[in-house]
């Protein structure tokens, strides 16, 4: 009788200890900055997968909120709808520049999403690399429009083969 | 018997306090480090991964979404690569086009290349309309999805053929 009472007491004490230590474990891991031993410099090459602070979740390092970025992407897409058929009917340097800018921006944001989905967790530095590459490409496009035949004329010449 | 049970209770159940406290202090590594340990161990043991992508039979919505992404990435890479190469190479566009013309490529290869250039644009453009409709919240019903999907595929081939043969 006494032993069963004691066992039961141990059980409740054990479960209370479990509960208390679970609480303790949550708070201790949460308050400690458990970002490992990497400094700020190596973070560029080491993909961070969490835990993320509430400020980061609210988008601390970003220029605009994600929903605004999404809206700008869709506005660009809607703007591109009339632009592409217009290039079939009106060829001019203005259309050249408009198409180059629109295609560049759309492609840059699209590839950004693809890289974030698939590649960034394995190779954390692809996003800055893609930014640099696409800026060089845009410079090439502007140069092409300015110093060379221009996009519409180039497509016409290519198609006449 | 009672002494045995009491000693068990004293030694095992009441000692749990210590081991739990130890566990709290040991968790100083980050999630990144723990994931790294997990992946290193499993790679070393060469354990098979459970099927994740190829376990599904490809249906229309998945294939069209994949093609939309693939054509977009391909066009982006092509435009970026072409403009960087044009920046790097010395001559201008007319010069290189003359070079390609002098190769006297067979007509069917030229038609094939024109299709290769025209179809991604037309497919991505027409499927883009479906994506914009979904973003506006319309056209998610499965029958609508399939109808618009087959229409988009057919239209993309028709428009690409128009580009190749009429221009």
Automatic annotation (TrEMBL), chain A:
One of its GO terms (biological process) is tricarboxylic acid cycle. It is a multi-pass membrane protein. A ubiquinone binds at residue 118. GO terms for molecular function: heme binding; metal ion binding; ubiquinone binding. The keyword Transmembrane applies. Keywords: Electron transport, Heme, Iron, Membrane, Metal-binding, Mitochondrion, Mitochondrion inner membrane, Transit peptide, Transmembrane, Transmembrane helix, Transport, Tricarboxylic acid cycle. Gene3D superfamilies: Fumarate reductase/succinate dehydrogenase, transmembrane subunit. One of its GO terms (cellular component) is mitochondrial inner membrane. Heme b binds at residue 106. It is found in: Mitochondrion inner membrane. The chain crosses the membrane at residues 87-109, 129-146. Coiled coil: none annotated. Pfam families: CybS. It comes from the Eukaryota. InterPro entries: CybS, SQR/QFR_C/D. Belongs to the CybS family. Membrane-anchoring subunit of succinate dehydrogenase (SDH) that is involved in complex II of the mitochondrial electron transport chain and is responsible for transferring electrons from succinate to ubiquinone (coenzyme Q). This is Succinate dehydrogenase [ubiquinone] cytochrome b small subunit. It comes from Patella caerulea (Rayed Mediterranean limpet).
TrEMBL record, chain B:
InterPro entries: SQR/QFR_C/D, Succ_DH_cyt_bsu_CS, Succ_DH_cytb556, SuccDH_FuR_B_TM-su. The chain crosses the membrane at residues 70-88, 108-126, 147-166. Keywords: Heme, Iron, Membrane, Metal-binding, Transmembrane, Transmembrane helix. Its main location: membrane. GO terms for biological process: mitochondrial electron transport, succinate to ubiquinone; tricarboxylic acid cycle. It is a multi-pass membrane protein. One of its GO terms (molecular function) is metal ion binding. GO terms for cellular component: membrane; mitochondrion. It comes from the Eukaryota. Coiled coil: none annotated. It is found in: Membrane. NCBIfam families: succ_dehyd_cytB (TIGR02970). This is Succinate dehydrogenase cytochrome b560 subunit, mitochondrial. It comes from Patella caerulea (Rayed Mediterranean limpet). The lineage of its organism: Eukaryota, Metazoa, Spiralia, Lophotrochozoa, Mollusca.
């Amino acid at each position: 009788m006494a032993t069963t009472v004691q066992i039961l007491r141990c059980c409740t004490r054990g479960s209370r200890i479990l509960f208390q230590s679970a609480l303790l474990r949550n708070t201790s891991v949460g308050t400690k900055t458990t970002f490992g031993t990497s400094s700020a410099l190596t973070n560029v090459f080491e993909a961070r997968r969490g835990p993320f602070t509430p400020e980061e979740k609210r988008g601390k390092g970003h220029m605009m909120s994600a929903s605004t970025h999404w809206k700008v992407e869709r506005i660009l897409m809607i703007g591109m709808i009339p632009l592409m058929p217009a290039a079939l009917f009106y060829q001019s340097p203005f259309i050249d520049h408009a198409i180059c800018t629109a295609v560049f921006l759309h492609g840059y944001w699209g590839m950004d999403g693809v890289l974030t989905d698939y590649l960034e967790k394995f190779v954390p530095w692809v996003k800055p690399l893609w930014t640099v590459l696409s800026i060089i490409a845009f410079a090439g496009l502007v140069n092409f429009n300015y110093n060379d035949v221009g996009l519409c004329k180039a497509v016409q010449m290519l198609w006449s083969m | 018997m009672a002494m045995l049970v009491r000693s068990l209770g004293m030694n095992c159940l009441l000692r749990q306090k210590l081991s739990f406290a130890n566990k709290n202090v040991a968790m100083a590594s980050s999630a990144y480090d723990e994931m790294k340990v997990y992946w290193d161990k499993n790679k070393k043991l060469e354990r098979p991964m459970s099927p994740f992508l190829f376990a599904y039979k490809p249906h229309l919505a998945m294939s069209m979404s994949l093609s939309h992404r693939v054509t977009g990435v391909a066009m982006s890479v092509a435009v970026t690569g072409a403009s960087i190469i044009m920046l790097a190479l010395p001559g201008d566009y007319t010069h290189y086009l003359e070079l390609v013309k002098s190769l006297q490529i067979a007509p069917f290869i030229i038609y094939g290349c024109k299709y290769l250039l025209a179809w991604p644009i037309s497919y991505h453009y027409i499927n883009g309309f479906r994506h914009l409709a979904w973003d506006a919240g319309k056209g998610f019903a499965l029958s609508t999805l399939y109808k618009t999907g087959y229409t988009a595929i057919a239209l993309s081939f028709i428009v690409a053929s128009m580009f190749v043969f009429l221009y």
